[in-house]
Amino acid sequence: MIRMPVFVALLLVAGIASAAEPFDDKFRQLEEVLPTPNTIRNAAGAPGHAYWQQRADYTIRARLDENKRTISATETITYHNNSPDTLSYLWVQLDQNIFKPDSDARMSATVASREAWAKARSDEDGMRFEGMRSILENPGFEGGFAIGAVKGADGKPLRHTINKTMMRIDLPQPMKPGARLSFDIDFSFNINDAKVQGGRTGYEKFDDKNDLFEIAHWFPRMAAYYDVYGWQHKQFLGAGEFTLEFGDYDVRLTVPADHIVASTGELQNPGEVLTATQRERLQKARTSSKPVIIVTQQEAEAAEKSRASGTRTWHYKARNVRDFAFASSRKFIWDAQGYKKGGTDTMAMSYYPKEGNPLWEKYSTQAIVHTIEQYNKYSLDYPYPAAISVNGPIGGMEYPMISFNGPRPTKDKKTGELTYSKRTKYGLIGVIIHEVGHNYFPMIVNSDERQWTWMDEGLNTFVQGLAQNAWEENYPQSRGEARTIVDYMRSRDQVPIMTNSESLLQFGNNAYAKPAAALNVLRETVLGRELFDFAFREYAQRWKFKRPTPSDFFRTMEDASGTDLDWFWRGWFYTTDAVDVSVDGITEYGVSTKNPEIEKAWKKARKDAEPVSVTTQRDKGTARRVDAHPELKDFYNEHDDFTVTNKDRNKYQEAVEGLEDWEKALLAQGKHLYLVDFSNIGGLVTPLVLEIELKSGKKTIERIPAEVWRYSSKRITKLIVTDEPLVGLTHDPYWETADIDNSNNAWPRKITPSRLELFKTDRTKDDLMKDFNTPLKTK
Known about the structure:
Strand order of the largest sheet: 5-8-3-2-14-18-16
Distance between the termini: 65 Å
Structural class: alpha+beta
């Protein structure tokens, strides 16, 4: 766009009303909503000088029984009470108990509506075979933890009470501030079929009789205890995910001897579980500029055809992580590539069965490296030694250093041809970026997912969009940009973003898409990239390896950008208001020059521009008496109200004699002034982004801050001054504000194009005789 100097001002227009409407201050501060700052979380949104958080270290010995599809294990948890509080009991998460038939998640499940259940509009929203199988088979699955001994370091039993997905351990002696306590838990559980029971973990069985295991939330884990909520022991219902304590892990995983294990952490015993060739390939991969195959497809296919009788133990250690997950299968192909830059020195690795190729070998590890490059730019340097993507039954789920991702090519059952759709390709790249990106939010910036899903999913989806834009031009974005959230913002079944994770009506839109779109609006339209990027990175740096709350994010963004954004958080995060700005009307004004030669000519042009009456049109050419008798014409037949007289000229001379030079120059400028009326129909205040089109065809963009609505959040009038006539004005020309109705954004109004589909009449429909006589197909 060509930028021209355009003056835009605010006019306060007084309206006449029988009674004043209550003033709705969209810019009132959030102090009434946000918690009061203190020494733990300060007013700038940073950890205060008294900030504290708990810690939990784990030593786990686990065995995977492939035939029985079970995990049995024992763990030692060392809990560090860094709080100023004395604790008489501890809470432990038992998230596997969500698979118990009587779990709250199962028992509280409902259908969306009777209509959605029985009257699906298409196969996309109808009940599928898989869905009905899950409904019928889930009650028969014996899921959940079987908790054995719970005992202290002295070997004595600890009294404990299981409350569904939580377990309280009563301490024989209160745990004082600064104390450390170790205790042991023996446990086992049946691994769920991920295709039947669903969830974020499970196994996948293949036609070749082999299984692939993706194992997560598989051990009793310490519940979070922190200053805002105390114990975070909300029941696990499925939507609200996890918030956990950081700690060190020492884990030994005993699996079938021919399995390859992908895991959180660093492998401690490669000489015991990897061949010399595999170790050599791994070393090469560390400095390679492209992925190196560690286990080839040929080697994986050979392993599929035979089963080892023994077992092998893989030993992993992880430092300063909040969780631990792993995957195990003899079907795994494995590739890796090192990445070292700045504070990051890691191995990007992918594990996938042959069913994932050719898609996975081409894109997975490349997508991991790309994610780290981009997320490092916008948040913090990736600190862990590994970043892993595993292909299995879980569509997309994240854990420290490892993620489970689902998309695969399809194989034609007749020809064996492998193909994949555009949606599958970009779905794979996108889900890997998203899940690997979760290492940053919330695996490092450790927000409380069980309380606020948007704090990890929304922020991560936003950065995912930035990373996808850096993958290739015109990457097919489904979330992030403002235009992608418009349909949701129009819908009725909404709750504010600031709603607990288990109470969201449209989970994907509310927790992922709307927060991401809001942050895009904040970055592109409200703050600008420089201010936003500095503030966002400051948030990540302040809160890495700590537990931020929404107020910490809001305050940090304001503090680091130097901008009052309370109106933004209030509108986008605390309400379901939408952006809908209407351009209601425009009136043109010119500054009178006082010169009668100019002013009367202007008035005459206005008169001449008026429509000619029908009577005058039809009388045109009619014989007139004065034409037949010209002697009847006089002075008034030659002059009219627009004739400039000497009196006019004398008056003008008298008027300008008392003016100073700058006042004379002002009269001669010939500016065009336009009063533009705007209505805020949607209720969500927004910056005005105005595309102003002039008579010459030149266009300019003027960006007016949202504070333009501060005195009236419903109606305002703007003054626009131009050097030449204005012929068109459009609000939000780039669809960057998520305005839900573009039809009222322009003056003059624009015609909306559409299409009418015509259909041929089907005269054979419901022809019973024809249907009866149709030849029966035989195999």
